[in-house]
Amino acid sequence: MQQSQRLWDGPDVLTQAALAGYTRAFGHLIRLDEGRIVRTTPKPSDRVALVIGNGLGHEPAMVGMVGPGLFDINVPGRLFEAPPASRLQAGLAAADRDAGVLLCVSNHSGDVLNADMALEDHQPERGPVEMAILGDDVASAPPDRREDRRGTAGLLFVWKIVGAAAEAGYDLTACRDLAARVADRTRTLGAAMGSATHPITGEQLVEVSNGQAVIGTGVHGEAAGSTLDHPTAQQLVRALLDPLLDDLGEARRSGPVALVLNDAGGVAPTERAALAGVALQELEAQGIQVTRSWFGQYATTFNLRGIALSLLALDDELQDLYDAPCQGAALASHGSGPVG
Amino acid sequence: MAESPATASILRFLSAASTALDAARDHLHELDATLGDGDHGDAITAGFAAANNAAASATDERPGAVLHHAGRALADQMGGAAGPLYATVLRALADGIGDAEQLELDNIAVGARAASDTVARRGRVSDGDGSLLDALEPFAACLERHASGDSSLSEALADAADAADRGALATTDRPKRRGRASSHPSQGVGAQDPGARSLAIVVRALADALVEHATATTENSRLRESHP
User: Fold this and answer.
1) Minimal Cβ distance to B37: which of A109, A139, A220
2) What are the pLDDT digits (tens) for B33-72?
3) This prediction's pTM
4) Angle at B150 between CA B148 and CA B153, to 5 degrees
5) A contacts of B80 (beta carbons < 8 Å)
6) B79 touches chain A (CB under 8 A)
7) Where are the alpha helices (DSSP H) in chain A?
């Protein structure tokens, strides 16, 4: 085991410092309010508010996705631990408004349990609250149990699109249905080509043998699937894309798709861009029309040397909302353009 | 506070659970490092420490109210999947005791049954899925069996704590169907579920605290008998 570093006196010190870093550096967008990340300039109260809780350790998700065109409130928990129901409830109360609040939940047992309990005895004073439990990871459950799939990097599509819809004045029911519809058309599959180092304990979170790639890793680096031995970039990308396309089905992949390549924290920027290039080439070779493509670090697991590819089957409405501007600490878009 | 013997037992239970979990922290850490992200030991220790601290300052000193107060403090401190489930267990036991001034086997058995059922529903787990329910359900079932007979509270709890212990050990050979371990390639076969282990530790602390309660109560009545 690697000797642990002594930069941080425990996980809470690390995560609180990280939140301070985000809110101080991006004070024009976000600020800390009783432990919650809120917008510096609140959204008009006649628009639906979007709230999400999450365990820390996946930055920039979700602290970096609070701001215009994105979330209104993020309730962070402790390291890799969904926030307690009481704190979610306080977040819902802070967001309470006539137009209502959509509580977005990435499907992991802790997040769902605390969200369920928060809603059980939450009494909003002004508007209703709806909940959307969302998953996208094809490695976590087969197609006939899609509702069991856990939430991973592809939920970026949901955050971006529903964020734009809420900003544009979609009502609460429409926002909730849209979230479900986007998740229903999203597929993600991840791979780890190396491990991640826990910054406190120094432990390696994933065991990946030298030269191998493990397909199906989740947001905590947990491995689920097959292993590739010394794959080429093209073999690695195909091992992710082929199951995604199969899972999307014929009807969905006949139309345009959006691609996101998420870097789990430990891929060099040059290699990240190169892998996105390979993925786009592969999709083109298979006759898939990719009209929007982003690559970057959206949801990480420390310095995990891993990527996830996500596909969204677009339609005109989804593409318009995806193209709408947004501004968060980690996600700023002045409108996406077509893929060249 | 000048609490009743029943409330003293609840306080002793929470304190013993907190101490026992702290002592088992490294073991729980190892189990969770195999199946999860290795922080179950820290989280559950912090959760029960908060519950224990809160119980000592509860304003309503009846045993059920103290336990309910402790459950709320645990829920405020501890998130993740374990926080709400352990809070559910403490609150269900508290509801079973209700307003009673004494701890009776029937009430504890009713509370344990509700705890197991609610954890199964909230956590969307079944007995045998390799979760804390694998220790909680045998605990509840054993108490129910004793409640329909003529066992004493302390006998029943000692037996039920053994059942929880066996249930936790049995998770070693089971594939885990919920939580992070379920997506592990081995599905956790070969490793004991840390949640089931910590539940077994908690109910052992309850049994031990109530054995002392029974002994103290018996001695009190003996004293009264010999000094009328």
Assistant:
1) A220
2) 765 666 777 888 889 999 999 998 888 889 999 999 999 9
3) 0.90
4) 90
5) 55, 77, 80-82, 110, 114
6) yes
7) 11-25, 85-95, 109-120, 156-168, 172-184, 233-248, 250-253, 269-285, 316-323
